[in-house]
Amino acid sequence: MAEELNERSQNILEAIVEDYIVSAEPIGSRAITRRHSFNLSPASVRNVMSDLEEMGFLCSPHTSAGRIPTEKGFHYYIDSLLQVRDLSKQEEARLRKNYRFKGMKMEDIMQEVGRVMSGLSNYTGLVMAPKFASTVFRQIEFVRLSHGRLLVIYVSESGMVQNKVIKADPSLDQRDLEQISNYLNRELNGMSIQAVREKIALELQTERARYDQLQKRALSISSAALQEESEELLFVSGASRMLEQPEFSTPEQMKRIIQTLESKKVLIDLLDRSYDAQGVQIFVGSQIQNSEIHGCSLITAKFSNKKGAVGTLGVIGPVRMDYSQVIPIVDFTAQLVSRIMEREIE
Amino acid sequence: MAEELNERSQNILEAIVEDYIVSAEPIGSRAITRRHSFNLSPASVRNVMSDLEEMGFLCSPHTSAGRIPTEKGFHYYIDSLLQVRDLSKQEEARLRKNYRFKGMKMEDIMQEVGRVMSGLSNYTGLVMAPKFASTVFRQIEFVRLSHGRLLVIYVSESGMVQNKVIKADPSLDQRDLEQISNYLNRELNGMSIQAVREKIALELQTERARYDQLQKRALSISSAALQEESEELLFVSGASRMLEQPEFSTPEQMKRIIQTLESKKVLIDLLDRSYDAQGVQIFVGSQIQNSEIHGCSLITAKFSNKKGAVGTLGVIGPVRMDYSQVIPIVDFTAQLVSRIMEREIE
DNA sequence: GTTGGCACTCGACTGTCAGGAGTGCTAACA
DNA sequence: TGTTAGCACTCCTGACAGTCGAGTGCCAAC
Hints:
The structure is a homodimer.
Chain A: H1 7-23, H2 29-35, H3 42-55, E1 58-59, E2 68-69, H4 71-81, H5 89-98, H6 106-121, E3 124-128, E4 137-144, E5 149-156, E6 161-167, H7 174-188, H8 193-203, H9 207-211, H10 213-226, E7 234-237, H11 239-242, H12 251-262, H13 264-273, E8 281-284, E9 296-304, E10 310-318, H14 323-342
Chain A binds a DNA duplex through helix 2 and helix 3.
């Protein structure tokens, strides 16, 4: 895969990719010589382009058009030609300034992050909030509602709140509930929700649960409330920016794109895939192994705090994406959100 | 405005509107006589159509095309020709069956309602959750987080949960918080959030607040947590269905529509407008007094429970909307959601 | 190895033309 | 007087041919 290219070929490939990123149109040999000063004639450039096409880095939509980079071309560009420099302090500060999180709760932060990422990159922002199961138990509260319903409120260590309505034994009074929540808050403190689930399942079967009424009730309530956890929270921002890309300009493509962005399931699967990886991940074109998404690239990064809550954010756009701009944005934002979640900064 | 039309004109107008609703194309005189048995020749129908055009109910896109209803034509159709019959028990049951709310919390219900309405109508569903300020205070809970932050959780009478992170005096310990929440739960019970706000503002200025430390702290915390309430929750479902309408088939229109649906602000303003009205409201075309929305009609209804929580739901689609189908869906859904919110049914 | 020249290709655009759907008008009919 | 058949007219649509320009590939000369 990592073929050798001489310097001239590299320069020309880079020029083509970069010109194509801004113009979205096939690049001809004359255009190259005009815009870049290689001290080469169009004819020489044509020879190189012909070689690059032979090697699969370029292709031409038809005989008398210019050339456009293939996915392989973009790969080579990203892996070997693009240097993503770290952001300077000024740039960081500039990015930082776009985000305002003061006094926001989790959902709002996620939404805001997506919005700003989309605005900065001019592509579509995706943010998947930390899965609740990955967080650490902090506290549980009960609120009795009418008609024998019980509102259960969990709070995670990092301040995420999740609530659920369950049917509960109507004989439970306020004092019972207080006892139960005290019991659970004592027993489950500091455990991951996942571990809590397992512990509950286990304890419900022990000998002690048979005669300890309080424990039994506590366990069965929290079991009911924890099962079938609500689906994952995905925020899509700036979907309409996708429609501004010339590669998706036909009505059919627009429909397809919007449908895909609307069916969050597909996107969640995508973001889940970078769940285990470290740092920024880049999926170019068909690397997004999903039949419903064509011609798109995805740049993602994980964010997390020390308390185990892990989410994913990213930017999706056409393969012809301005990687040099987007990669630092995604990288920096992920780090920023991680710090926000630690409340190291506000 | 409510001009008189003889029966024949009415029949023909009705036929044109209904044919146009399914075909989205100009209707010619022959097509009318073919599809409906008026025992009239195309030429006679032409005469009537000419009159209807004169009166402003129809217009022709160009000389040799058929005719399409104007907004005025749609109005006349909706007001005088369309009879929205109530749903039969079977139909209600069929609609009812689409909704599954079991064990869902507010946000999920709202989302689900939008999804199902969109699915049933084949247009785009809008649901605006009850404004928190319109609900009735039930309970307040505090959870201390790290770095001196305090998570405040409100629960409304109808089970809506709202939470907010505030900075709090680090000297407050668990016992203080319990006292404060007990105090607030006692004092504020049964009041609307709006009233709570006012009460707090008032009491903070009283003489007593000066020396009663507990009260003072309680008031200032709840004041901090209640101010600047999070924005309204709007759920848009099936935006892509808008793109399937032939009237919005050009890329430019698609972009505009999606941008509009994405900027929830515009939609919230729209839905807010039917906040005071009773029953189903219909806005045809330019009656949606919003420069960003052209060629759309909106059908909305309010839902509420006896505890004061009031939200709005509706369906938005092209002016050429199947009103006879959508109106009962919106009407029924609003009633259904009201009952759900009362927990009369599950 | 580089370059200018030249023939070739192909898409984009333009103009023309025939076909079809629908209208408006008029005159004839019941 | 209301209805209808006939007919001329309008205008959209799609097919087709021709032109233009951008770009390529190849070859011969430097």
